[in-house]
Amino acid sequence: MSEPERTAAADELDGCVGEILRRIEAAMRDSPLAADREAWSECLRQAGFVLADCARGLRLGQVAADEEQAAQATRLAMLCGRQKATRLWAEMLSVTIGTLSERHGDRPGAARRLGLVTAMLHRCVAGRTVTGVPTEYVALHRVREIHAADRGRLAREIHDWLGNHISLAVRHLELYEIYQGTGSPRASHEVAQARTVLGEVLAEARRLVADLRPQPPVTDLATAIGAFVRAAYPPSVTVRVEVAGPADLMPDSTRQELFLVIREALRNTLSHSRANSVVVLVNTIPGQVHAVVEDHGVGFDVRAAAAGGRGYGLVSMRERTELLGGTFTLTSAPGHGTRLEIRVPLLERNYVDDSSDADRGHPHR
């Protein structure tokens, strides 16, 4: 392709950049990516950079990936994850082709210039992808951030919840001493209240200890989930755990993260659902693992919880699932229980290639 044709293609692209970005924003307005303001702002910014790189590459006849582009690609992957970034680039390509076709499609040689832009855009995106930090390292970095946030949350719960409840129990005991000295019948009531509060503290302490205990590698999901249930749940709650399918289809890293998602779901159920029974189902088949955690407790308004900033556990579970390339679906409503459904693809490579001994389904309590 001649230099004049490449320059003409670059000029046409430059004249459409603003409209292309507006169309991308409109097309993805309702996507999960757009809900994260920081990530979405970075997406639009980098889409503009890529379009500028494409126009410059057309004029020069080549694309040269530099350190700044690599840093941008790494930042986007860390903010959005591989799947969301890929969707952004796909949407950008589609919108760019559509916009150029509408604006310049009736001009002589339009198809040839459009082909030039398409090829150069692919090269610009690919150049950023291969020069950035590998996806595995980005995912590992994000997983570590999530783990650190989990530890911070547990520290806050220990300080706030346990501290407040222990103070409340002490207050009841102080009132007991006062009433006992006056012979008031309220003395026995205050002792009973202190006993109730300390029982709640003990149950919460057991749960927090179970969360904080160092986790060995998960080689059997049924065993790991059952151990957490026995450590955290009171005997009054029945938890049925069924794990089916060959474990050698699931990489160790996938199994570990899936366990953490299920554990967080069980922790939320224990803390908030007031359910008498919980069901955990995990089924592994070639190409996919499907997990469900369901209770028939009090339920809650999912949107209100997220809007009120009370949904960190939900965000953590969703992020872990998406880092595995999976989908996370939460269904709940006040008075109608809660159902969490996770589907994770099992690829030839999912962070690392590994396998372990076969899991078997085992019910617990």
Largest sheet: 5 strands, mixed
The proportion of residues forming helix, as a percent range, comes to 55-70%
Number of H/I helices: 13
SSE arrangement, N to C: HHHHHHHHHHEHEEHHEE
Termini separation: 71 Å
The helix/strand class is alpha+beta
Uncertain runs are 132-137, 348-365
**What is the global morphology?**
elongated
Overall pLDDT: 79
What is the CA-based Rg, rounded?
A: 27 Å
- What share of the residues does DSSP label as strand, in percent? 5-15%
Side-by-side strand order of the widest sheet: 1-2-3-5-4
Number of E strands: 5
Structure, briefly:
By secondary structure, the chain is an alpha+beta fold. Helix content is 65%, strand content 10%. A hairpin with a 2-residue loop joins strand 2 and strand 3 (288-295).
Give the tags.
365 residues, alpha+beta, five-stranded mixed sheet, 65% helix
Description of the molecule:
With 365 residues, this protein is α+β, with helices and mostly antiparallel strands. 65% of the residues lie in helices and 10% in strands. It has helices spanning 3-14, 17-27, 32-35, 37-60, 67-80, 82-104, 110-131, 135-182, 186-212, 221-232, 252-273, 302-307, 312-323; strands spanning 238-244, 277-285, 288-295, 327-332, 338-345. The chain has a five-stranded mixed sheet, covered by helices on one side. α4 (37-60) packs antiparallel against α5 (67-80) and α5 crosses α6. It is elongated, with a radius of gyration of 27 Å. The termini are far apart. The relative contact order is 0.09. Residues 132-137 and 348-365 have low confidence and may be disordered.
